[in-house]
Specification:
The chain is of the alpha/beta class and 254 residues long. Strands 3-2-1-4-5-9-8 form a 7-stranded mixed beta sheet, sandwiched between helices. α4 links the parallel β4 and β5. It is globular and about 50 Å long. It starts with 27 loop residues before the first helix and ends with a strand.
Length: 254
Amino acid sequence: MTDDKPSKKVADQYDRGYDYTTYWDDRDYEHAAEEAAIRRLLEGRTFARAADVGGGFGRLCLLLRQYADHVTLAEPSRTQLEAAEEVLAGTDIEKVQTQADDLAFEDASLDLITMVRVMHHIPEPSKEFAELARVLRPGGTALIEVANYGHYKNRRQFKKQGKALPTEPVSIRTVSADEPDAIAFVNHNVDTVVGQLAGAGLVLQRKLSVSNLRSQTLKKVLPTGLMVGIEKALQERLASKDFGPSIFLELRRS
């Protein structure tokens, strides 16, 4: 189990001088891979009301608007929402400051929820999953991305050592936390997360393996367009093996 779980969850953990928009500089492949996964999972479907939970500065909201009549960016960070003002300018996408474990939505009021690159920061997600289930209507869809500790490299390493993969989240923090409530950085066991989601009433329908070519070496030698083309061909094929560092889960509210 990770040892850097925050003492409490606070909305300003990304309001401490960090510009998340710059994180996406030179990450065109990762962004395109995630958009490709969402398109694949939502292809041919339309929704009335959708929310991107923990959606940062609205990076994926414009894509969601292609599938939903009304989209809300549900983000805890004030500075992220300020950045979203520019990204989402001229659109009808709503912006709400709210935490994933205490969402500012009525019961069963949403038809679609996405939560991408958020589990990376939640060592124990039971409250968040309960909230997602509460605000999602019965039969509604949730797309949840999981930072996958059991990706191919780790799975091969553990097998070589004759060890089983951890079932608990694993801290991957590379530097010491600068404050007692500093945001967590963890990777998860996908099977454990699927079980936790089922316990909250969110039942797995499909999954995709995403960012399968995430490698600085490959980025230096392969054009982004080629990497994205290969990525699209691999997302379904590698899903059953939980190959990639990012697993997208499509879930239905029971």
